[in-house]
Amino acid sequence: MTASQTTGIDAVPAGGPVRLSARGLTLAYDDHVIVDGLDADITEGTITCVIGPNGCGKSTMLRALGRLMRPRAGLVELDGRDIHRTPTREVARVLGVLPQQPVAPDGLTVADLVARGRHPAQRWYRQWSGDDHEAVARALEQTGLAELADTPLSELSGGQRQRAWISMVLAQGTDLLLLDEPTTFLDLVHQVDVLDLVRELHREGGRTIVMVLHDLNLAARYADTIIAMREGRVLACGAPADVLTPGLLREAFGLEAVVVDDPVTGGPMVVPIGRSKDD
């Protein structure tokens, strides 16, 4: 089932070419199917937020889009090419992926972590170079971590640590970023801090960004496009005001809610009432 079948919303927002697409995507762990026959498109130059209840396949879909998981059936295309038929280094020069809850070795400093983002650009005949130094310094500057470059990751706050991981992805030099729950375990102030950084990277660098988020109102505020999922399928895809409706919230989350205008942005703001009696 596609978004257009459910809501009448065009699954490809106008304004740019498709960078990533999934067609008939089926994803499974052993015999357990998580995503079944999913279609989705990610348009160039947009921020897309993927929402849905726990266990609906959000992170699994993102793993497949990032070439971290091979589909049981269907196809993922990156810039019109089968992502699994594209050499790994070519993908890494275009696509950066930040998984959920990444782990770094003990004792690693911020600069050490960010430098790891340069590995795809290196070859056996060209190791560390001036370009690598510049890319790392630029990524640290963009994320406000230049003064903490020599600080061990273990000494950072949660928000600073998340910025360090994003900095590593930026050092990779890609213009397409997949971020799996980048605000997990952060308090509200640090959630907003990280998402403001993501929006700044989008606006200033023209990056195409896909994020999995749990907070519906943060998704509404930061996304150009929202993909809503349930039970491994896309229920709706479109602008936040078109997707975040009482009917969709009831169908996707089993949630009764009213949707009002956000007093800051004018976009949709979800006010929960309680669990749907039909869920």
Explain briefly what this protein structure is.
The chain is α/β, with parallel strands linked by helices and 279 residues long. The protein is 32% helix and 28% strand.
Description:
The chain has about 280 residues and is of the alpha/beta class. It has a single domain, classed as P-loop containing nucleotide triphosphate hydrolases (Rossmann fold, 3-Layer(aba) Sandwich). About 30% of the residues lie in helices and about 30% in strands. The protein has helices at about 5, 60-65, 90-95, 110-115, 130-140, 160-170, 190-205, 215-220, 240-245, 245-255; strands spanning about 20-30, 30-45, 45-50, 75-80, 80, 95-100, 175-180, 210, 225-230, 235-240, 255-260, 270-275. It has a 6-stranded mixed beta sheet with strand order 6-7-8-3-9-10, with helices on both faces. A 4-stranded antiparallel beta sheet has the order 2-1-4-5, covered by helices on one side. The chain has a two-stranded antiparallel sheet with strand order 11-12. It is globular. It starts with a helix and ends with a strand. It is a peripheral membrane protein. This is ABC transporter ATP-binding protein. GO terms for molecular function: ATP binding. It is found in: Cell membrane. It comes from Nocardiopsis lambiniae.
